[in-house]
TrEMBL record:
Name of the molecule in the record: Vacuolar ATPase assembly integral membrane protein VMA21 homolog
Sorted UniProt keywords: Cytoplasmic vesicle, Endoplasmic reticulum, Membrane, Transmembrane, Transmembrane helix
UniProt cross-references to HAMAP family, sorted A to Z: VMA21
Biological processes annotated in GO: vacuolar proton-transporting V-type ATPase complex assembly
GO cellular component, one term: endoplasmic reticulum-Golgi intermediate compartment membrane
Highest taxon listed in the record's lineage: Eukaryota
PANTHER family (alphabetical): VACUOLAR ATPASE ASSEMBLY INTEGRAL MEMBRANE PROTEIN VMA21
Length: 106
């Protein structure tokens, strides 16, 4: 579980750092060629590249999640038993309430 959280935190940091770095680089003329652009073009290009960078990070995160083996994560046996018990109680409760509702309609 720690590995999954570690990957999530790294992806989240990149989703914040990359767009801010791109916007900062364009607005402070740190990237080559950005000085020749008009302010309107500079805003559009930097915003577009910032959005694209976030989407690239999301795609990489999804690819990492899909490559993770499915059999690696096993559910907790106690939690699973409690969940099954809860569901069985819930389904038993709805059938009796459905019968009660049918009797009221008659």
């Amino acid at each position: 579980m720690a590995g999954v959280m570690h990957k999530f935190l790294i992806a989240s940091m990149f989703m914040w750092i990359l767009p801010v770095a791109i916007l900062y680089g364009f607005n402070h003329n740190l990237l080559p060629g950005s000085t020749t652009l008009s302010p309107h073009s500079l805003t559009l290009l930097s915003g577009f590249l910032a959005v694209v960078s976030v989407n690239i990070v999301i795609v990489f995160y999804i690819c990492m999640a899909l490559k993770e083996p499915a059999d690696k994560h096993k559910p907790d046996a106690a939690f699973l038993a409690e969940a099954k018990d809860s569901v069985s109680k819930l389904t038993k409760g709805t059938t009796s309430s459905d019968n009660h509702a049918l009797k009221k309609q008659e």
